[in-house]
Amino acid sequence: MTINIAVLLSGGGTTLQNLIDRRAAGDLDINILCVIGSRADAYGLERARNHHIPAVALPRRDFPSLSEYNAAVWREIRRYDADLVILAGYMLMLDVPADFANRIMNVHPALIPAFCGHKMYGRHVHEAVLEYGVKVTGATVHFVDDKYDHGPIILQEAIPVLPDDTPDTLADRVQALERELYPKAIQLFAEGRLIVEGRKVRVL
Description:
Layout: E1 3-9, H1 14-24, E2 30-37, H2 43-50, E3 55-57, H3 66-77, E4 84-87, E5 104-108, H4 123-132, E6 136-143, E7 153-160, H5 167-190, E8 194-197, E9 200-203
Parallel strand pairs: 1-2, 1-4, 2-3, 4-5
Antiparallel strand pairs: 5-6, 6-7, 8-9
Helix pairs in contact: 4-5
């Protein structure tokens, strides 16, 4: 079954590009209905337009409060018949309406519940992993709830932390893992194979 998705982003849109490429290759049963950016200069919006996907900039600074900003984001999402909302490098807390519970996904560059939460994103995560000295890290795809990096975990996969890793080399390997894991989780959703039971997600 092909599902309709909306994508939220704040930056370059590499995750969006991965989804576009996977869809074009026939590996992902999705229609990308719209892309919403929290910054007017987010290059991800240009990527969307290059592929004839409706792209809307909703700069956070144009709204007096986060709640008003979130209301505007959801007004835009609800213009489309989205089955699933994908966070693709989206840097703001998103309110989760009741009808979108377990219908919003995010990917995090570590093994939740380690190295996650407010201000734990991107390079900050990899720096923390190396500073702590753990031997493995990885990526986590999860449903989004009302806390940072907290919703039910869909998929996780680990990679070793190498003795000579830097934040950049570690980020490269984790991002490669994310590019595989995120489309896999989305495809499982499209196939109706994800069952949420409390905090656990069962894959059929």
